[in-house]
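Full entry
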Amino acid sequence: MKFKLKKFLGVERSSTSHSEKIIATIGGAVGISITYLISYLTLDAQSAALIVPSMGASAVLLFAVPHGALSQPWSLFMGHLISAFIGVSCYMLVPDIILAAGLAVGLSIGAMHVLNCIHPPGGATALAAVIGGPAIHELGFMYILSPIYINVLVIFIVAVIFNSGFAWRRYPVCMMRFIKPDESNDTKLHSPLKDQHIEHAIKDMNLIIDVTTQDLQRLFLLSMEYSETDRLQSKDIILGHYYTNGKHGSSWSVRHVIDEAPNHNPENDLIIYRCSEGTHYGRSNSCTREEFAKWAAREVIKKTPE
């Protein structure tokens, strides 16, 4: 009975660390405090109270799931701006406020689908343009610029700066400095699953998911890797390459193998490395090749500037 209830409610096991939950909480608080202040200075308190909820929903995405497809800048900016435009247009063109409200949200959803910029908080932005009251109605299409665009820009800047302090969760996702080797130089992942296969399956299932096809490929590959072996072998550690321990939060780290002292005796087969990201950043140390292999979860490479 308990299992059926959890399945009905959609309760999934959380793999997020406690530190990650705390970071998301603090980030959301900082982002919304600054955004509300700007809305309060731009509009009256009552109107600001209608604008900020849509930004609050955006904060959940930008600070709790910064690498999600729905959180990325295109979805954030276009999702809000196109919805704001549609909301104002519906208020001006449709006399019945109930119909105008429904059309504003419905058309915004359709437009976000067409423009590939689905951002759920955009629906609230469109709705506020219709039911926001005189202070918002008087703005007309200026509502798109101020407060919507300004607020979106503010919460975006806060998200970029705040998440930059945590190397494993930088926002936008393109700001990540280390990636899997197969993701470099626009090469395809060595996966039997191709983009078109995944896209076709998603279309058949009629799904909207908050991950990219590449994310799904990585998930598949990592799952296969972990099913075959839990860790790298000592023979896989190569001079000049980068490796991560695969952990999350403050325990995450990347090491660069900068030198080695090969020896047939495993106790004297040494690796010298520098911490390139995460824990002990910038420090150098040494250990045996076996110890390094036990620490490493997988290889990564440093992204080169485009």
Observations:
- The CA atoms of residues 266 and 290 lie 7 Å apart.
- The longest helix spans residues 18-42.
- The two ends are 54 Å apart (CA to CA).
